[in-house]
């Protein structure tokens, strides 16, 4: 087999870190092909691009890619615990438990849908209160999606002006900023000892500690009554604590169902499941403002199928074809998570021409699929109708992988899809979104970090009349 190509000379200590930029990755793929290796500080990494290769590696070599690298995020923020950081059998246990629980929340009496609809309704009233004056929606949307995740986890919600939620979202925002600006901590663990905390190690640790303390106060362990015979649950904490007690009762010790994993799992759900959704909803508004003919078409379809008197329900989805295509295109075009969460190869992985060496950090470039010319033809044009056939039916394209692919893909994909459908549907139905000033459109170019975030912009939300 051949040695993996590299993007250039690896410098002592930093390796290729001085060359590494997200914007640089399409050019590297063109020059080096779908797979290449990189030395990022002390971490040997392999980057995977393109649907075929990503599919082949993640699906066929899943068992060799269950672990996370021992970097700052997993070691210091998640403390090697919880759904996003565990590997092996303990990850499988957490994943199966959470997956079946989330599924149960969405069947029968769909408590997930009820919660999202309630939150969407609150969101509409706060937007309405601005009476068409220019408004930056990102903060309001963030509170709403945070409430959905709080509901799923603790069966709790907060008002927009609640001090605790303002304080909490301040932590989340700062954490995301620092995870980008201090990304070097992932590759050079020694930097945590840098003088004057210039890499913000202590600040990050202190934010993570405060987030853990806040989460623990919301868990409210002492006031939770556990009944081992309960089978139906309204929130994750209750189900998790009950399962912990059951395992204890049965004397099972080799289990991930313990407090350390509960805490880190909840932290991961907040980190993975709020910013991502909020950014996608705000991108949808940005695209509606930029492409008013599409916004009209969305409203006309919703008006025809549902009218404006009752909110959209998940049962309407199959009839709202253009709207479904719009959401797909929003996720493709926005590419909110450019690179999936890094894995670590626990064995040599042999491919036709190359080997991914055991111990490498494997990086999965989702951007390379969502923007692949060979899959989409014109990937840089926002065009929802690429997901519709000549009869107007929705086309499912295998390359639409905003949630990753394989058994360790996004845990919250179904919840996320429901949130996007219900929140964006409610917004389209009730308001027409206009730019802050006529003829001055907000930029489509986002800020790029761990996630893509729309640059701040304001809209006028004009209530649609009956
Ligand atoms: C539009 C919204 C979202 C997007 C684009 C998104 C995207 C992703 C991606 C790309 C991954 C990495 C997959 C991989 O490595 O192959 C991921 C992982 C994950 N996501 Fe999401 N996500 C979203 C919403 C959510 C929500 C709402 C939740 C919470 C329920 C969530 C929870 C998670 C968790 C826990 C993981 C780690 C899974 C594991 O390690 O097994 N995500 N997500």
UniProtKB/TrEMBL annotation:
Where does this protein come from, organism-wise? Answer: Plakobranchus ocellatus
Q: Which GO terms describe its biological process?
A: organic acid metabolic process; xenobiotic metabolic process
Q: Does the keyword Signal apply?
A: yes
Q: Kindly provide the name given to this protein in its UniProt entry.
A: Cytochrome p450 2j2
Any one GO MF annotation of this record = oxidoreductase activity, acting on paired donors, with incorporation or reduction of molecular oxygen, reduced flavin or flavoprotein as one donor, and incorporation of one atom of oxygen
| Protein residues bound to heme | 410
The superkingdom listed in its UniProt entry is: Eukaryota
Family (UniProt): Belongs to the cytochrome P450 family.
**Which Pfam families does the record cross-reference, listed alphabetically?**
p450
Q: Which UniProt keywords apply?
A: Heme, Iron, Metal-binding, Monooxygenase, Oxidoreductase, Signal
Record GO cellular component, one term: cytoplasm
InterPro entries per UniProt: Cyt_P450, Cyt_P450_CS, Cyt_P450_E_grp-I, Cyt_P450_sf, Cytochrome_P450_fam2
Q: Which coenzymes or cofactors are required?
A: heme
